Every structure is written in C-alpha cells, then in structure tokens.
User: Fold these one by one.
Assistant:
Number 1:
Amino acid sequence: MPAATPWRKRAAALRELAGRATVDAKLRLEREKGEDTMKLHARVLAAASFACSTLLGAAAAQAQDFPDRPVRIIVPAAAGGAIDAAGRILAQGLTEHWGGRPVVVENRVGASMVIGATAVAQAKPDGYTLLVAHDGVMAVNPHFVKNITYDSRKDFAGVGIIARLPLALFVHESVPAKNVQEFIAYAKASPGKLNHGSGGPASLLALELFKAMTGVQVVNVNYRGSALSINDLLSNTVQFVFADIASGGAALQSSSVRTLGVTSMERATSLPNVPTIHEAGLANYDTATWIGAFAPRGVERAVQERLESAVTAAARSEAVRKRLLAIGMEPAALSGREAEQVVASDLEKWGKLIREQNIQFAQ
C-alpha cells in the first residue's frame, strides 16, 4: 500500500477535526435544549406553585370569613315536631356561636321527608345549606321509599350528631304488666290480642326488633304521627306504643299509662327512674333515634371543618344542652366523621331487620 502523502495526512486530520466539531455541536445543542427544557419546567412549576398558593390562600381566606351571609337549615318535617325543634335549637346555638350571624330554618315537607332531604342533596355545596334530619331520613327511608331521590352516603357529608331521642315503651293500665319481663310474658300468653300503635318508621322498627328478640305476636296499627297513636293508647284502642319521649308527654302525664322502659342503652336523663329495655333483660336492645346535621357532599374542606367545629361547639354549649333536655332529648356532640359512620351502621342494621322480617310500612 503506498505511503500517505503529507496533504493526505492533513486531509484526514481535517476530517477528524470536522467530525469532532460536529459531535461537539450536537452535544452543545442537546445540552442547550436540556437547559431550556429544565428552565421551561422550572417556570411551569413556579407558575403552578404560585397558582396553587393563590388558590389555597383564597380558599383559606374564604373559610376564615365563613359565614358571611345567613346559613339555611332545611328541616324535612313540619314545624312543631322533634326534628324541627332540634333544628331550631341548633340554629339558635350556631347564631350565638357565630356572634349573631343569622341561621334560618326552613321546613320542606312532603313525601316521607324525601323532598327536604333531596333539596339539600342537590344544593350548592358551599356550606350555606344544611340538612337537620333523624335516622329515619338517613338510614330507614332508603329501605322503605321506592325510587328515592337521594343517597344517604354519597350525597351528604356528616357535620355532626347533636341529639339522641330515646323511645319509650308505653303500656295502657289494662295490661297487667308493671315491667318489661311481665309484659313479654303476658304478650306471649295472649298471642294476637295486643294492639300496637306505630306513629312512624322509628316506632315500627322498635316494635319489630322487640318482636324479633322476644318472639311475641301482636297486631300493629299504623298512624300518621305519634300524637295520634298516643291518643288511641289513652283510649285503649291500642294497648301499647313505642314512641319518642319528646312526643310522649300526654302518655307520661296520664295515670292510665305506664312507662315500662326506654329503648336506648343508657337511661334517659328526663326519665331517670325508668330502666332501659336492655337492662330489664332484653340484652343489647337499642333503637334510640338520633338527630344530626349534614351538608351536601363536596363542600370545600376548610369550610366543612369550620362547620363541624361550629356545630360541635354549639352542641356542647350549656344553653343548647339545656334546651334539648327540656324537650326530652339527650344531648350529643358526635363529629362529622362519626355521623357518617353511624349512618352506615344504621343503614346495615335496619336493612337487615327489614329484609329478614319482611317489614312493610304504609307511606
């Protein structure tokens, strides 16, 4: 092979230099692109961080100012009943807690309380609309009402449970029983002879749980409200009723009616000498109604926390506790999360009983 001439050596060297220069240029371009990309990413991240901090700051400021206009409590029942009374007591407590900010109670009645509950479920989730309802609305209606227009778990966020409302077993004096065990024995000895008056789903479920746990056979008569069933108890048209203590004033004051037991696990503050049905021998019998506050699902977390804090503070205040006790309710102060857990538990509990006993309730 012929020896390389000087000019050939120089040409080869130049080609090598050119190749290196090309590679260096490509590397430099890629490095510059990388630097530009990193700068771009940094700018995007900075902008996103600024936007997030701005939004968080605005949300925090909004929550800090909450409420800056009247809050509305929707009660899905008529004025004068237990839910309405609890809703108005809570409204007054919140107004006091918020230094005079108005809280308005609105009664949305109809369709077994579905209309009022649905109105809140579909309301704007800004914290200014709340539902005050009992377990009948949240845990019983879903099993009884066909084509119900709200979902107790998906459509509502718990704000807090403010009261428990024990029912009592009221018995006409014609029944020869002075305690729960004597009543069970008499009912078993007289199958089908005792009539019970149900003033609503809570009363009916208290009866059905009692029947399931004791095996007694009785006749149930449905009424549109506890007041009507208690009136018929006083006249001995029905011989016993399960009715909430707040509605049972006439029965408690009548000499023709005995109060044999309460349906909660603890004795009622307003009836300290009346035993619970649980302690009277029917272990774990518990059908006390509760009343709580709920917001539409989707409220800003900071606003939701302020709502829960306010409701808890109001429920724990001495003024609210006294007002609840005065109408036969047991004060409570469960958190929003605890309220949701209670709803889930009761949905399962009552659903199981309703299916197993094939319970029907005339709407």
Note: DSSP finds eleven helices and eleven strands in the chain.
Number 2:
Amino acid sequence: MNDGALLKYYRIKKDMSQEELAESIVSPSYLSRIENGRVQPDDHTMNLLFERLGLDMSENKEVQQQSERLLRKWEIPLLNNDKTESIKIHEELTKLIDSVHDPTLLVEYQIKKLRHSIITKQMKDAEECLELIEELENQVNERITFYYYKHLGNYYYLQKKHSSAESFFSKGLNAKGMLQASQPEKADFLYLYSLCLSRLGKDGTGLEYAHEALEIFKENYHLEMCVKTHIQIGVSYSRISNFEKSMMNYNSAKELSDQIGYTDLLGVIDHNIGNLLIKNGHLQQALPYLERSIEHKSVKDEESFFNTLLLILSTHYRLNDSDEVALWLKYAWNLVETNDVDDGVIMELNFFRMINHSPLKEWEAFINKEFFPYLKTEEKWHQVITYSKILASHYTGKNMYKYSTKYLQLALETYETLHNY
C-alpha cells in the first residue's frame, strides 16, 4: 500500500489544498514529499493526516475483496453501454469505495467511473475522474493500463480532441493489458480507434482496425455492434472514394438492422446513403434518404439530427431550390427557439441565412473571421471542404472569379492536409 498516494487521492477528492491538510501537522513541502513517495513519516504523523481527511485506516479485507469483485463485474455493462446495470454497480461501489485503502484499486475505480460517466452523460463527473486519474496515473497496474488508455481515448474523442484521443488509443494498442482483455473488449477498442482515425482523415489505417473489430463482433454474435461497424466501414470507404464498398457496407448495416429489429441507427444509415449519393452527384436522389433520416432521428440527439438537417439545406441550396431552403431554414430556426442548440449549429444555419442576403463585406467578415475559424478549431475538416466548394460555386455564379479561386484553393489545401498529401 502506498500511503502517500492514498493521502493525495483523498485530499484531491475532498478538494483540500496541501496547505489545509498539512496545517499544524507538517509543512506543505514535506506533505508534497510524502504524497510523491519520497519520504515515509512515522505512524503518528500519518494517522494525524488521515484523521484530518476523515479516514478510518483500520484494515477491512472483506470490503476490499468485494470492491475488487464489483470492479471486475462492472466491465461487462461498461462494455455493453448498459446504463441500468452500470448505475446499479456504481451505487454498490459508492458505498464501499471510501473504505478502500489501495491506491491501485482507487485509480481503477476512477478509470471505470470515467467510462460510466460517459455512458450516463455526466460529463462534469467525467472531468472530476480525469483530474484524479491524472494525479495517480503512476498507480495504474499492467492489467488496468489497457482500460486507462481506452477510456481516456474515448473521453477525448467525445470532447472532439481527436489528436489527444489518437495518442491514448495508440498506446492502448500496445498495452500488455490488451492481451488479457476479452475478445469483445478488444473489438470495442478497435472500433473506437477506427472512429478516431477516420475523424483525423486516416481512413486507410482505420479500415484495418474496423474490419478486425467486425470479425470479432461476428464471431461473438454482437450483432448491434456489427451494424455500427458496417456503418463506420462504409463512412471510411466513402471518404477514400471507394463508393461501391461504401454502399455495400451501408446496405449490410440496413439488412442486419431489419433482421434483428434494431431500428436505432436507421436514421444514421439513411443519412450516410444520402451523403454517398451526393458525393456521386445524385443530389435529387439523395433527398428522400435524408428526409427519412430526419424522421427516424430525434432532435434530442442534437449533433446527429442537425448534421442531417444541414445536409438537406446544403443539398437544396446546390440544387438552387430557394423555396425549399427557406422552408427548411424556417423549420430549423423554430427548433433552435425551442431547444438548447449548440452555437456551432447556429453558425452553420447562419451560413445559409446570410449567403444570398448579406452585403459582401459583412458576408466575407463572417466567413473568414467567424465561420471557418470555428470549423478549423473544431477540426471539422470535411465541412471546411464542403462549404469552401459551396462558396466557390456561389462566386462563380456571380462571375467573381477571384473569390471563387480563393475558396477552391482552401478546399484543395484542406483535402491535401487531411489526407497527408
């Protein structure tokens, strides 16, 4: 047992400074050395410090063993995104964890609680977990290292910090703990890693991991994950312009969804088929898929819902359907007024609101000082390319070739950067 690490864990958890804990017992600098394992004070001093933290340091092997069992049991609902069972186990652990004195178990608890917070969408809790994990990462043992890299990669991916996520996932791929993980756990890791790589434009490598994940999911009859992985493979093939294999995987996802009655992702599948048709120049044929996608989705799933709505807007705009653009914009703004919508969505809606109705100087200021900087900050590189092409076409239609050339160049440079040309 590392008493210094234990002190540090509970001090941070209780939001105490080193000065507050050390007062009248030791100096803050000496406490820092204790926490970092550089000195081992006498038992009396340690007892005073633990007492100030409100800790009973009497050994309770039964509590520790029960906590170990629950932490292992927790892995299954965390893997399966089983919110109900995850909450149940978390509640049991909450009653025990403050009596656990092993820093290795405590950091394991925080790593798995991070994943639990993602499932239950308690991102503030996730941030608190992250702070404790970062302070005690040297307590992570070999088996838990894999979960450490996986769950932190997952967290940063959801925060849209894709480069940070890739760094953790790449380390997880080589972690010894991965050899001890179950096959479904490995497949889930590979699937998440492929999502991250795709976001970074590394679809070739991402496809390798997605195909490997798909084979494991098939072998273990994880059919819902097979649907999700077929979609991801379809997206990656679409991005490298292999449209035939992309459509094949979307159709596989749709057929499997129908067979098992899994309707949750039908909106995502229709969105991606519509997007693929647009890439092939079949804009009119894409619209029924996109509109059906909107019907399947809920506005509560804000990012997915508005991604489709914005794609519908851009498609009608490219088809010069000004009446349809106006109708869909009106529908979108009504939703904005009655829902808590992300500022980025509002910015993209403003793109279509302003493009034909704002003075050139105001319009260009919005595009270059607000719109594209936002997309780049959020690493929305595919949107940078899409909107650059829309602008190039817009200015070509007005015979403003200097502006048209500028945005075509932006689209090309972004594409080359994204694909490491």
Note: Residues 111 and 148 are 6 Å apart (CA to CA).
Number 3:
Amino acid sequence: MKTWFFDRLLEKYGDPSWSFEPGYPLLDRILLYEVRIEILTGKRSEGLYH
C-alpha cells in the first residue's frame, strides 16, 4: 500500500527530470494512515478565490 501511494504521489506531483533509485529505502520508517471521511460538505473558503 505504501509503495502504491508514493508511486501515485510522484506520478502526480513529481518532475520528469527527477531521477530516483528504484524502491523506497526508508519505507519501513513511514507511517501512512487511511482515514474514512464521515461528513463531506460543499463549503469552500472564500479566501482562496479572490
């Protein structure tokens, strides 16, 4: 699950010019949590859109 998460993260936000060695050497030291969304409102912060 962690490998999948970081692969998607680099796919979305990574720069194609970056080069990494295969694998994630510190993966066992990373805590990754999955949280279930209980309530999702349609509110938007007006401060972001002016």
Note: Helices lie at 2-13.
Number 4:
Amino acid sequence: MGIFSKIVNSFASSDTSSDTLTQESFTKENSQIEPIEVSKPSLRSQFATTILNKARSLTELGRKEEALATYDDLVQRFNESGDLSLRKAIVTALVEKGTILQADGRQEEALSTYRDLIHQFGNVESLTIREQVHKARTQIALILLQKGATLVKTGHKEEALAVYEEVIRTCDVIQNCSLCNCKGAENCFLCEQLTKALIEKGGVLQANNQQKEALSVYEDVINKFGNSQTPQLQEQVAKAQLHIAAALIKKANSLIESGYGKEALTVYEDIINKFGASQTPQLQEQVAKALIEKGAFFAKLFRYGKALSAYEEIVNKFGNTKNHVLQKYVVEAFFEKAEIYSLNNRKEEASAIYEEIINRFGQQEDTFIQEEVAKAQILKRRLLVGNFSVTKKRSLFVK
C-alpha cells in the first residue's frame, strides 16, 4: 500500500461510501500520522490536506483540544515550506483554529492566532491567501470591538481607546483592498467594523470631556462613508451626525450660559448649515433646537426681523411633520412669533398666529399640544378684549 493510500485509509470510516469520520472508527491506532514522512511535493500537499480533514473531523466530534493540536501539528510540519499549496494549507489551518477558539470564548488566543497569520502571510500575493488574511483582519476587528465595549462598561476608558485604535488600524490597512473594494463599498463588513470603532472611540473621548477630539472622529466617519449607499454604513454615519449635532448644541448652550452669545450663534448656524436638509428625525430635532435658540438670541437683542426669520424657518421646515417632538418646536415657534408681534403692537398678526395654532393642532391628542392650544385660545381672547400682557416663553426643549 502506498504512503498516501495509507494516510487516507487511516481516516476512512468503516462505511467507505461516507466521508464522515465516526467516533467508533477514529481509534488511537489508526489516528497516528506522526511517524509518516512524506518527501514528494505532491504527496506533501495531499498529506497537509489529510491533516486538515483530520482536524475538521475532530472538531465535528467535539474533540476541540485534539483538533487544535492537529492544526498546530500541520503548521509546525510545513511552516518553513515555500510551496504555495502548503502555505495555503497553513493559512486555512490558522483561520479554522481561530474560529474554534472564538467559538470557545478564548478571544485572546484567537487574536494571537489571527495576528500570527497576518504577520506571516499579510504580504503574500496569492488571492486565496489574501482572502484568508482579509477574513482574519475582519475577525480581529470584531473581537476587538467586543473587547472595547467590555472595557468601556468596566470603566477602563484608556484601554478601550487603545483597543479602538487597533481596530481602526486593522481596518485602515486594507482601505484600498481590491478584495472588499472598501471606502464605503457595498456590503463591506470590515468598513462597518471601522465605522463602529470610530463611533465608539468618539463616545469614549466625549466621556473624557475631549469634545474637540470626539468631533474630529465623528467628522472622519462622515468624510469616509458619508456617500455610502450601504444601510449599515448609513446608520453609522447618521449616528456620527447626531453626536456632532448634540455636541454642538451642548457647546452653544455653554457659550450662552457664559455670556458668549455671538460665539453661540456661530455654533447654531453651523448646526443649521450642516444638518438643515437632513431627513433623519433626530437630526431635525437638533436643527429645530438651533433655530429656536437663534431666534431667541436675536429677540433678546430686539432684532425682531431676524428672530422672526428663524421661527418662520422652523414652520417652513417642519410645519407639516407628524413627529410629536418636532410639532412641539413648531408650536413654540408660533408662540414666539405671536409674542414678537404683540410686543410691536401688531395684534391682528398675533391673533392670526394664535388662530393658526388652534386650527393646526386643535385635533392633536398629545397632552402637551392640547395645553398649548388652550393657551393659544386664552391669549387670542385677551387680545380681542385688549387685556394682553406678555409672558415671555423660553425654550422648553433645549437642555
């Protein structure tokens, strides 16, 4: 019997029509392949394939440690070989070993295995090997994202930042990779991991009160993937935009409280310019907040024309919305407009706005909206009898 036939027969089941290795047929005696030395290149390749099949069969039987040892055996036997078929077998063994370790919850060992693979074969030109390297990088990114999330939850923010940085480096390495056609490509899993890592990194920076650095990270997400049509990437871009808008609102509010009104106005304008055309409800809410505050800023300076323009922009943008939060901003904009007209003794226009509130929102079931409609009815009646006193409303939903 030839050497290769001996190897193959040593792993065959008693049922020669089946390729499945059974527990009964896999005995200690016929599983011994170590003493066999194969010198011919073609047989060495077949031998490596047989070792791979042995490891896979052991995995199917639940004998994970033996399977891992078998993968290690293959790597050790042929690690110095320059033969492409053997190098492919080694790469396959390392990927499958990493997969077993991941499934077994041994994430650090899996990381080490994938890193060894990339270190050894990251620059090999073979398409098959490049595909496996790509798979290893993807799994590294996934493991590290989970590790980073755990570190954040346990309060280890600096360590989490370092982990997210590694995810970003791992993904950036193949941004121009032809295998995944990155830069926001369709169905690129690695790009998705990159955006998630950037978002998480930004969150950690914000928690550390590093707002400028966080905004830079979120801008990076938008710049890299803002034009992607992939739903998963669009979702991450929207998150980045929302984080930016919320951070800018917070910055503007702090400036207002510190007496830096003009600087705050610049920030509100930035929000409106960046996100004014967005169809994302959460971003629209941030735009509405910015417009309310912009109007309040000008009203405080008695620049009523600019204040009215800001409030009218809210009505024009969101006047027909079904979103309850946005409806509240629209109602507030109407009230602010009416009060400006009343302050300037333009009672007919103020009365018309109160009538507009009643007509637009009179049938709404939302409790807050119902209360605002009732206020509009009272204020309209006061205007008619000439008993109107201004009670300046301030923004109700900014903080």
Note: The radius of gyration is 33 Å.
